[in-house]
Structure formats: C-alpha cells, structure tokens
Design brief:
It contains five helices and 34 strands. The chain is mainly beta and about 475 residues long. The chain has three domains: about 140 residues, Sandwich (Immunoglobulin-like), CATH 2.60.40; about 140 residues, Immunoglobulin-like; about 140 residues, Cupredoxins -  blue copper proteins (Immunoglobulin-like, Sandwich), CATH 2.60.40.420.
Length: about 475
C-alpha cells in the first residue's frame, strides 16, 4: 500500500438525571487558580479541502474553521481556555477534549455531561489546563461519522520550561475511505466495520494532506508530536536510519527511551518523540507504516536540505517535568475486573442490551457487536459499570476477550499501565488510552480524583458505537 488510494486515483436530553447535576458542580481536587484566559472560536461546518492534490479535486469534509485538522490550539500549562463552539452542521454535535482532565460539565459527552449542541447553536467550554502535553479535540456525538468526516484538531499544552529543541512539530495522522472521485465513502457504521477492525481507510494523510516529504536540516533536533486521529487504523511507524527517543505517551512524561523497532500508536493515542537528524545534507530517509502485514507503505520521506545546522548532536535527552496526577497507592488500591467481549470470532452467545438478555444475531440487527462486562451500550447514558470513591486508588484489570485490538480510553483521568499479561511494564507509563492486543490482559492504576460519570470505551469508533462503552462513576 502506498500513501494514496488503492482504487486507481492519482496522487494528486441535557444531563442524564437531576442527581448528576450535583456531581457536575464539584471540581477536581487539583483545580487551581489559573493564568490569563485564552479565548478561541470554533465553527463546525461542512466544507471542502485538498486531501489528495493541492491543484485538483477538493474532498467534501466536515471541519472546524474550514480546516482539516482544525486549528492547533496551543496554550501554556496552567492557563484557562475558553472555546465557543458554533454548530454549523445539520445535526447535533459536541466537543470532547481528549486526554485533558477537565471538570465533568466540560467533557463533551452528549446527555451525560451536556445537552448536545443543536444546529445553529453555540456552547462555551471553559476549563483550566493543569497538565502539559499533547492532546486533541473531537466530537463525541456520532463520532464514528463526525470524526471520520474530518472533525478533529490538535490541542497542545506547553510546559513552563519546555525541552530545548530546534522545532516543535505536530503530525496529525489520519486515514480516509475515499472513492475514485476523491469523495468520502458514505458507508459509515456498516455491519462489517462495526464487528471487525473498524473503518480502516485507503488513503493516509499527515495534517490533512497526502505528504511526500518533510524537510529537515542536518544536525537538527525536533520534538515530534504524533496524534492518531483515525477512526480505527493503528499506525506502526519505523524511522529508517534514525532512532527516536520517546519522551511522553498521551501527553504524560515518561523516562526517555529509544525506539529500537516499530512504534505502535493506536487510535486516539499520542506519542511525543525527540528526533535527532543525524544524516548529511542531501540525505533522505523513509518513515514507514508497517503495522498491517498486507498494508505496508511509505508514509513520507524526511529530506535533508543543503545546509548543516550543527556538527555535533545536542546533549542527552532530558526527561520532561512531571504533571499533576496523584500517584496511586498500589498496596491499598481496590481492584476491579472489566471484560471486553464480542466481535466476530469472539465466541459470545448472549449479552445484555437495553436491559434484557439478547443473542448475538439480535445484537447485530440492532447495530451492536461489542460488550463491556457483558453489556452492549445503547447510548452514552447508562448504569455505571463501577462506582468509585473519590480520592481512592484503584487497579482495573482489563481483559480483552476478543479477537481484535482495542484502544481503551478513560475520560477525566490518566492512569498508570502497570502490567501486561501478568508481567510488570518497564516504564509504568501514564496514559489515558491503552491499546490492548487480542486476548491480552492489562492492569491500570489511578486515583479517582475527578468527580462525575466518565466514559470508558474503545476508541475504535465503530467499536464504541457498536456497544463497547461504559460509565465509571466517581462520587
């Protein structure tokens, strides 16, 4: 697979219940006085953009402020952000601030945290940014289609003392299912995608374009922020001739370590790299995506210009400063098991849907194929799968009982990934979205310090729509 079509196109109800309102009014323990307010306007609306050819056919998309990705929002850690979102679509929408530990009422989940934004209406989101890092924003209303049509954008929270680099670069990775005329295929939410790997497209873009080349300078050090905004595609990147350093997962600092092989990044995940460009002027190297054995391709070439920035590499990569998450107490942590089931080849016979037991065929007829603890979600408002006491430590034992990958995302919190298949993880990395391989078991640990009802779901958006979604209540 090349980074273009495979089909011959040239390159070129308000809150869930009155009782929820009391939880919404509370603020997390880490909220603090903010720095100056930053104000931004976002307009979600239909539009068109050059995805495949800057001189050729435009692709009809949905976008923020007429751009795909939407505008990069960049503020400093501790600042307060106010975003007025106007809905120019013909259907309801919301905005979720993925990875940010915002107050419940600002989380952007329809009917659970807010009334959806009706066509022609505006909703104002306002919150502090307690943690530096790489985040992104996108709808949580019919996200399998709204995100799939282009509604997303990067959100960067800069450190007070950022690492010394020559450039800070963001790559928003996405794929699109396009037809021969470069228009988006309308087969959103079809049964096959829902029950298999999700909507994997045939055209990959970086920052909203098919990109052949990234220009660089010999001796340069860049901070490369990777954001996977795809509905379902997992990217497995290899940097020919170079060895990047990982400095953050999902916006959260990690002990710097070099990538010695493929770097996997699942849907909704982010990875920050330090990339030292150690080649010579005129050199070029490929960045390849090799995750799917039958869909390997070259994402782009990093091409060195004619001049050298410096002769000697910069000093050793330093760790980023810690963010504000409280450390979970593993010795006293309460433990819970959460099982993810369903999908083709999953062997699931029965599940709960709409409060009653149904068979797999009835689930499929109703557009459902996946479960959390045996329940297929039929909307964002549901009985909690867990009710947790505020400021207590918890370990969640996640059990992927399916034949498919699942990037599992928890709203309102970050967590440490402490083990995989019973083996302790090397870096105990903080994440908000953890990718689980088929049949894999993963343990995560966190302090439930943010009150409210929080979505906990697979971020393959067709899996989420197909039932793999639950609510964790923090009281």
């Amino acid at each position: 697979m090349k980074n273009t079509f495979n089909n011959g196109l040239s390159r070129r109800s308000f809150l869930a219940a009155a009782g929820a309102a009391a939880g919404v009014a509370a603020v997390p323990a880490w909220a603090a006085p903010s720095l100056p307010l930053r104000q931004i306007d976002l307009a979600a609306a239909p539009g068109a953009t050059h995805l495949v050819d800057s001189d050729g056919t435009k692709t009809k998309v949905w976008s923020y402020n007429g751009r795909v990705p939407g505008p990069e929002i960049r503020i400093r850690q501790g600042e307060r952000l106010r975003v007025a979102v106007r809905n120019g679509l013909t259907e309801e929408t919301t905005v979720h601030w993925h990875g940010l530990r915002v107050p419940h009422a600002m989380d952007g989940v329809p009917h659970l945290t807010q009334k959806p934004i009706a066509p022609g209406e505006t909703f104002v989101y306002e919150f502090d940014a307690p943690d530096a890092g790489t985040y992104w924003y996108h709808p949580h209303q019919r996200s399998f289609e709204q995100v799939g049509r282009g509604l997303y954008g990067p959100l960067i929270i800069e450190e007070t003392n950022p690492p010394q680099v020559d450039r800070d670069v963001t790559w928003v990775l996405d794929d699109w299912r396009l037809l021969i005329d470069a228009q988006i295929s309308e087969d959103f939410g079809n049964r096959h995608d829902m029950s298999h790997a999700g909507r994997i497209g045939n055209t990959v873009t970086v920052n909203g374009r098919i990109t052949d080349m990234f220009e660089a300078r010999a001796g340069e050090r860049i901070r490369l922020r990777l954001i996977n905004a795809a509905n379902a595609r997992i990217f497995g990147l290899e940097f020919d001739g170079h060895t990047p350093w990982v400095i953050a997962y999902d916006g959260q600092p990690v002990d710097p370590h070099q990538v010695t092989g493929r770097l996997d990044i699942g849907p909704a995940m982010r990875i920050d790299l330090i990339l030292d460009l150690t080649g010579d002027p005129g050199d070029a190297f490929a960045v390849r995506d090799t995750f799917y054995s039958r869909l390997k391709y070259r994402l782009l070439n990093v091409v060195y210009g004619p001049k050298r920035l410096r002769d000697k590499p910069m000093r050793k990569v330093a760790a980023l400063p810690d963010n504000t998450m409280p450390e979970p107490d593993l010795a006293s942590a309460e433990r819970h098991h959460i099982a993810f089931g369903g999908g083709m080849m999953g062997g699931m016979a029965m599940a709960k849907m709409g409060g009653r037991e149904v068979g797999m065929m009835e689930m499929m007829r109703n557009g459902k194929a996946w479960t959390v603890n045996g329940v297929a979600a039929t909307g964002h408002v549901m009985d909690p799968i867990l009710t947790l006491a505020r400021n207590r430590s918890y370990i969640l034992a996640l059990d992927n009982q399916t034949a498919w990958y699942h990037p599992i995302h928890l709203h309102g919190h970050s967590f440490r990934v402490i083990s995989r298949n019973g083996e302790p993880t090397r870096h105990k990395e903080w994440q908000d979205t953890v990718m689980m391989a088929p049949r894999e078991q993963v343990e995560i640990a966190f302090v439930a310090d943010n009150p409210g009802g929080w979505m906990f779901h697979c971020h393959i958006l067709e899996h989420q729509a197909g039932g793999m979604m639950g609510v964790i209540q923090v009281t």
